[in-house]
Amino acid sequence: MAMSDALLRSRRDAKRLPADSPWIRARMTLADRLKRLRFRAWHRGTKEADLLIGGFYDHYAGSWNEEEVALFETLLEEQDVDIMAWALGTAEPPARYAGTVMQALRRADYIPIAR
């Protein structure tokens, strides 16, 4: 009985944690993290940001390693206008985002164009 009480308590506590907390992230499988990232990438708040960030996710996420997934999770915490400025080259990204993910984001060869 004590074991189930502890389990219930830990589940209740987990629901109170922010979705991006390290405790929650550590208990998610990579597939679950990618599903969650896809949703967050495509639901940014503006159509422009959805196309830029969601299109980027769809094009590149399948080839990401654990480190790149973690970097993209962190990147999604940034403001859309900042991400878009970094991608379009109108602002320099912080050093923490330097690397293959930012290089790919700046190529902008992934943006779906309606015809």
TrEMBL record:
The keyword Chaperone applies. Keywords: Chaperone. Gene3D superfamilies: Flavinator of succinate dehydrogenase. It holds the Pfam family Sdh5. The keyword Chaperone applies. InterPro entries: SDH, SDH_sf. Belongs to the SdhE FAD assembly factor family. This is FAD assembly factor SdhE. It comes from Sphingomonas jejuensis.
